[in-house]
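Late entry, written up from scratch paper. The run itself happened at the end of the previous shift, but nothing got recorded in the book at the time, so transcribing now.
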Amino acid sequence: MNVVVKPPQPLRQRLSPDEWRRMAAMFGLILFLHVAGALLMWKATTGNYRLSDGSLFGWGTAALAYILGMRHAFDADHISAIDNTTRKLMSEGQRP
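Output as recorded:
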Protein backbone atom coordinates (compact mmCIF):
# COMPACT_ATOMS: atom_id res chain seq x y z
CA MET A 1 0.00 0.00 0.00
CA ASN A 2 1.42 3.35 -1.04
CA VAL A 3 0.86 6.35 1.17
CA VAL A 4 1.19 9.86 -0.18
CA VAL A 5 2.34 12.32 2.43
CA LYS A 6 2.14 16.03 1.74
CA PRO A 7 5.08 18.06 2.98
CA PRO A 8 4.16 20.05 6.07
CA GLN A 9 3.16 23.67 5.56
CA PRO A 10 4.85 26.44 7.50
CA LEU A 11 2.96 27.38 10.66
CA ARG A 12 2.15 30.82 9.31
CA GLN A 13 0.16 29.26 6.44
CA ARG A 14 -1.70 26.70 8.56
CA LEU A 15 -3.76 29.29 10.42
CA SER A 16 -6.01 31.95 8.94
CA PRO A 17 -5.65 35.62 9.99
CA ASP A 18 -8.81 35.24 12.10
CA GLU A 19 -7.30 32.23 13.91
CA TRP A 20 -4.11 34.21 14.58
CA ARG A 21 -6.18 37.04 16.09
CA ARG A 22 -8.14 34.63 18.26
CA MET A 23 -4.94 32.95 19.44
CA ALA A 24 -3.36 36.34 20.29
CA ALA A 25 -6.49 37.30 22.24
CA MET A 26 -6.42 33.98 24.11
CA PHE A 27 -2.76 34.36 25.10
CA GLY A 28 -3.39 37.99 26.07
CA LEU A 29 -6.21 36.90 28.37
CA ILE A 30 -4.03 34.20 29.93
CA LEU A 31 -1.26 36.75 30.55
CA PHE A 32 -3.78 39.19 32.05
CA LEU A 33 -5.13 36.49 34.39
CA HIS A 34 -1.61 35.60 35.57
CA VAL A 35 -0.77 39.24 36.29
CA ALA A 36 -4.14 39.82 38.01
CA GLY A 37 -3.64 36.69 40.15
CA ALA A 38 -0.16 37.78 41.20
CA LEU A 39 -1.41 41.27 42.10
CA LEU A 40 -4.35 39.90 44.07
CA MET A 41 -2.08 37.50 45.94
CA TRP A 42 0.36 40.29 46.73
CA LYS A 43 -2.48 42.52 47.96
CA ALA A 44 -4.01 39.74 50.07
CA THR A 45 -0.78 38.71 51.80
CA THR A 46 0.88 42.06 52.36
CA GLY A 47 1.04 42.58 56.11
CA ASN A 48 -1.38 39.78 56.99
CA TYR A 49 1.15 37.17 58.13
CA ARG A 50 3.49 37.66 61.06
CA LEU A 51 5.75 34.61 60.49
CA SER A 52 8.52 36.89 59.29
CA ASP A 53 8.03 39.79 56.92
CA GLY A 54 5.13 37.81 55.39
CA SER A 55 6.17 37.99 51.76
CA LEU A 56 7.86 34.60 51.49
CA PHE A 57 4.96 32.78 53.11
CA GLY A 58 2.44 34.43 50.79
CA TRP A 59 4.42 33.78 47.61
CA GLY A 60 5.11 30.19 48.68
CA THR A 61 1.41 29.61 49.25
CA ALA A 62 0.62 31.14 45.87
CA ALA A 63 3.25 28.99 44.12
CA LEU A 64 1.86 25.86 45.77
CA ALA A 65 -1.69 26.72 44.70
CA TYR A 66 -0.52 27.45 41.14
CA ILE A 67 1.41 24.17 40.87
CA LEU A 68 -1.49 22.14 42.27
CA GLY A 69 -3.84 23.87 39.82
CA MET A 70 -1.54 23.04 36.89
CA ARG A 71 -1.35 19.43 38.06
CA HIS A 72 -5.14 19.31 38.15
CA ALA A 73 -5.39 20.87 34.68
CA PHE A 74 -3.20 18.15 33.17
CA ASP A 75 -4.94 15.21 34.87
CA ALA A 76 -5.73 12.22 32.68
CA ASP A 77 -9.47 12.97 32.68
CA HIS A 78 -8.91 16.45 31.25
CA ILE A 79 -6.48 15.20 28.62
CA SER A 80 -8.88 12.42 27.59
CA ALA A 81 -11.77 14.92 27.32
CA ILE A 82 -9.68 17.10 25.00
CA ASP A 83 -8.60 14.04 23.01
CA ASN A 84 -12.18 12.77 22.65
CA THR A 85 -13.43 16.17 21.52
CA THR A 86 -10.60 16.49 19.00
CA ARG A 87 -11.29 13.02 17.59
CA LYS A 88 -15.02 13.77 17.30
CA LEU A 89 -14.42 17.03 15.46
CA MET A 90 -11.87 15.41 13.14
CA SER A 91 -14.28 12.57 12.32
CA GLU A 92 -16.95 15.15 11.43
CA GLY A 93 -14.52 16.93 9.10
CA GLN A 94 -14.13 20.00 11.32
CA ARG A 95 -10.97 21.62 12.61
CA PRO A 96 -10.42 21.17 16.34
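Residues 20-91 form one domain.
(Scratch paper discarded after transcription.)
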